[in-house]
Specification:
The chain is of the alpha+beta class. It is built from six helices and eleven strands. Strand 6 and strand 7 form a beta hairpin.
């Protein structure tokens, strides 16, 4: 596993199993994803929220089985509590994730891997009477995540920040695990029509401007390495710092449970961590 930091030495998060159980009840695992963007000129605050619906695509390194996905898959070497979704680099959420990070990345940097800006994600699981809120940071995986030559600072950031939350479950398999293979597997996990959406006309541009023949609506992509679709395709990984489970399924016993990630690095660089749980009134 190329240039990845020390990994997590902690049991699975206490919220993970019930979160996945609730997600499985949803007809479609949609959630609201929030970033921050620079406020318009004259605003009394420096940043304003930006929200949109996204589709949960599984935990990073735990891509769900899909009989229609013919992309090469990594062995299950790692597990994590890192929710993922797919996106288009041309969408505003991607540069917002970069610009609001500690490094204040600019538009050009957002074309590759990196990020680290603050985000929130919220699921309302009607079937379980429960709201899930995840607060943390987000990182973007692009085609430059592996390759020849020197790694960019963004690639190093992703592999360090995400790698430290990846728990080894198959000792000895780390050296054969590939970030690029995982990225391609996420692309393959999408339907041909969804893959084709990464060849749509540039989002947010005026319809009066006729797009070129390669960027049209309604395309279906079967080539896992289609150059245009893969140029725009991204996987976004949410790194949680705090998770809230608000269960109002029974009004007489309603509760909010807050899980906070607390960690420290050992002398050997390994991450020793735990999730602290609080029981609160909703």
């Amino acid at each position: 596993m190329s240039t990845t930091t020390h990994h997590l030495t902690a049991p699975p998060a206490p919220w993970k199993s019930i979160f996945l159980e609730h997600i499985a009840k949803m007809p479609s695992p949609e959630f609201i994803f929030s970033t921050v963007a620079p406020a318009p000129a004259g605003s009394p605050v420096p940043y304003v929220p930006r929200l949109r619906y996204c589709i949960y695509r599984g935990m990073w390194a735990e891509l769900p089985e899909n009989k229609h996905n013919d992309a090469p898959m990594n062995d299950r070497v790692y597990e994590s509590e890192l929710p993922t979704f797919t996106s288009d680099v041309r969408m505003r959420k991607i540069p917002e994730i970069f610009a609001s990070s500690a490094g204040h990345g600019d538009e050009s940097q957002s074309q590759g891997s990196g990020g680290g800006g603050p985000v929130e994600a919220v699921w309302w699981i009607k079937e379980a009477g429960t709201q899930w809120r995840i607060k943390g940071t987000a990182f973007v995986v692009a085609r430059d995540i592996e390759g020849d030559g020197e790694e960019s600072s963004g690639v190093r950031t992703v592999k360090s920040e995400i790698g430290e939350r990846m728990r080894v479950v198959k000792e000895g398999g780390e050296k054969n695990w590939s970030w690029e293979r995982e990225l391609t597997a996420h692309f393959g996990n999408c339907s041909p029509g969804m893959r084709g959406s990464w060849k749509n006309p540039p989002p947010g541009t005026a319809v009066e401007k006729e797009p070129d023949p390669d960027h049209q609506l309604g395309q279906k992509v079967t080539n896992l390495h289609d150059p245009i679709a893969r140029e725009n395709f991204r996987v976004v990984i949410i790194k949680p710092d705090e998770v809230e489970q608000t269960d109002i399924s029974d009004p007489t016993t309603a509760r909010r449970y807050r899980y906070t990630f607390v960690s420290e690095k050992g002398q050997g660089g390994e991450v020793k961590a735990e999730w602290k749980k609080e029981e609160l009134w909703p």
